[in-house]
Amino acid sequence: MRCWLALLCLALPLMVWLGNTAYQKRTTAGYYPLSAFFKVEPNITDKKTSESVSTLQGFVRITPHNTTQFLSHHYHECAIISSSGQMLGANLGEEIEKFNTVIRMNNAPVRGFEKDVGRKTTVRVVSHTSVPSLKWNERYYFHVSEKTVYVIWGPHKKMRQDGLGSTYNTLLKLARDYPNVEIYAFTKEKVEYCDNVFEKETGKHRMNSGAYLSTGFFTMILAMEMCDHIRVYGMVNDAHCRGKNYTIVPYHYYDTRKTNECMMYRIHEHQSRGGHRFISEKTMFARWSKLHDIQFRHPTWHD
Question: Can you say whether residue 11 is alpha, beta or left, with left for phi > 0 and alpha for psi between -120 and 50 degrees?
């Protein structure tokens, strides 16, 4: 009996240590900490309106003045509109217009597609590679749509502020020319944070694996910090392209000449260098939807 008690006394600390180790491994894998990663508790006075009530220090305003101003918008409910060809013929324009806050990506147009994607753009998340497209049509994006908030992401070499960041220099000029437009950038630390999230979720180092995060990834990160409730339109789940009868649509709803969506996803998922991991990202989004109020409306995602 004493031998058993002695063994039990020795075993208990070992069991506790193993349990803690298992928990830490799950945490490192990225499943448990997501609730901590994306938990934002702003002091909201009226959730039915968009108020500048929370400061998101990972997003700094680009301004010709020597000041530091962080993004401080918070929204009750946001609609994220994908640029996917899934939006063609969706006839969701009226439904989307009912949201106070509509988030779009890159240079996705609304003109000519209002019936499917609506007219309103509250926030536009833009890749550094799409900034030239905004500049090319700057009157539309920064004059006609001057109430839109722009949030730009890009690598440090493009966004550096010492005069050598080509994308940052372009944005700084736009900020001077259109002082009423709010243009923000993901900070270097925030981009590194996104890389860290990718690694924790996939177990792969983002750069070493040859992957580039997509604008959809950065949009979801921003929305989870900025919005209480998120409704996503036009984004398929990770299993969609494995189905036998999946719908063939263009990669972008506004450019039917390019490769179809599923073919683009497959090419990028298995590309050794420079590919977006669209399918892997959607697996992450499904997991995050259980920790944050995210609903996929068109097409609907099922557990």
Answer: alpha
Q: Residue 87: CB partners within 8 Å, gap ≥ 6?
A: 81, 113, 116, 117, 233, 234, 253, 298
The pLDDT assigned to 53 comes to 52
Q: In what order do the strands lie in the sheet with 293-298?
A: 70-71, 56-61, 183-186, 149-153, 123-127, 101-105, 75-81, 227-233, 293-298
Q: Residue 301 corresponds to which tokens in the numbers above?
A: 């995602």
Give the pLDDT score at 181: 95
Q: How far apart are the first and last CA of the chain?
A: 50
Convert 23-49 to b/e letters by CB count within 10 Å (16 or more is b): eeeeeeebeebbeebbeeebeeeeeee
Widest Cα–Cα separation across the chain: 85
Beta strands 149-153 and 183-186: pairing type? Answer: parallel
For residue 132, give the H/E element and its range: helix 131-136
Tokens of 169: 């220099």
Identify whether 299 is preceded by a cis peptide bond (ω within 30 of 0). Answer: yes
pLDDT of residue 168 exceeding 50, the answer is yes
Backbone angles phi, psi at 275, to 5 degrees: -105, 145
pLDDT grade, residue 66 (50/70/90)? confident
Contacts of residue 96, defined as CB under 8 A and 6 or more positions apart, other chains included, come to 79, 81, 102, 117, 118, 120, 233
Q: What pTM was estimated for this model as a whole?
A: 0.83
Cα–Cα distances in Å, from 97 out to 78, 119, 120? 11, 7, 6
- In degrees and rounded to multiples of 5, residue 198 shows phi and psi of -60, -45
Tokens of 239: 């299993």
Q: In sequence order, what DSSP letters do the residues of 90-123 get, joined into one string?
A: ---HHHHHT-SEEEEETT---TT-HHHH-S--SE
pLDDT digits (tens, 9 = 90+) for 193-244: 999 999 999 998 998 888 999 999 999 999 999 999 999 999 999 999 887 7
